[in-house]
Amino acid sequence: RHHHPIAEMLDLPFLPFCVFLGGLGFVCVAFVSAWCQHWRGGFALDGSAQTFNWHPVLMVTGLVVLYGAAALVYRLPPTWSGPKLPWKVLHSVLALAAFGLAVLGLAAVFRFHNDHGTPNMYSLHSWLGLATVLLFSCQWLAGFSTFLLPWAPTWLRALYKPVHIFFGSTILMLSVASCISGINEKLFFSLKNGTTEYKRLPAEAVFANTLGLLILLFGVLVLGALARPSWKRPDADSPDSCQVPALLRGN
């Protein structure tokens, strides 16, 4: 593909962007871990409030950061030439790892609720979060069976690919919305007593609100990178797509 020289000058290089995004993802995980460690009493596996603290850490790490990394695999220039299979495997393994962390995150919150007699699945956050994880599981299974298993014909792959890409971005948006609503809900529950009310904006509230903004920024940047035409894999090289117009034309 040939770019106009001016377009080349204006085009943001992908690698520095990737380094920045990786740093931002690390900061998100560090922030959510520090919040749970410093203000919420750390981590445990005994069903206590410290067990609950695994929930936000695992969800931010899995559903946002690892999932964002999985989504951007095909934007890496090395993936644009040569065999696509190793990158497909990397994409699916990163997504599966993200899903595994999300399931552990759900287990942590259900364990905490059940041990304390708290009802499950009553809040908007919980509905949004569970919908995200269920949609994610369908997305992974459909992607795995269509793109990694050899049975799917080329026309089916071509038909499903835009659907897969659309739901990939949708799940990321849902993940970000779930995280932000969860942070907000946790702050309202935790900062109810006396001098540290949420509306008085104690240090914990400032810190956790900032975490929410960082997660939002991460999600927006991933979606921006996915939408950027010059960073997309040139599809002319891909047998997945170049056979399809011919098939559809009946050649």
Automatic annotation (TrEMBL):
It is a multi-pass membrane protein. Residues 20-227 form the Cytochrome b561 domain. Transmembrane reductase that uses ascorbate as an electron donor in the cytoplasm and transfers electrons across membranes to reduce iron cations Fe(3+) into Fe(2+) in the lumen of the late endosome and lysosome. Reduced iron can then be extruded from the late endosome and lysosome to the cytoplasm by divalent metal-specific transporters. It is therefore most probably involved in endosomal and lysosomal cellular iron homeostasis. Keywords: Electron transport, Endosome, Glycoprotein, Heme, Iron, Lysosome, Membrane, Metal-binding, Oxidoreductase, Translocase, Transmembrane, Transmembrane helix, Transport. It holds the Pfam family Cytochrom_B561. It comes from Burhinus bistriatus. Its cofactor is heme b. Its main location: membrane. It catalyses: Fe(3+)(out) + L-ascorbate(in) = monodehydro-L-ascorbate radical(in) + Fe(2+)(out) + H(+). Its EC number is 7.2.1.3. One of its GO terms (cellular component) is late endosome membrane. The chain crosses the membrane at residues 12-34, 54-77, 89-112, 124-151, 163-183, 203-226. GO terms for molecular function: metal ion binding; transmembrane ascorbate ferrireductase activity. It is found in: Late endosome membrane; Lysosome membrane. This is Lysosomal membrane ascorbate-dependent ferrireductase CYB561A3. InterPro entries: CYB561/CYBRD1-like, Cyt_b561/ferric_Rdtase_TM. Homodimer.
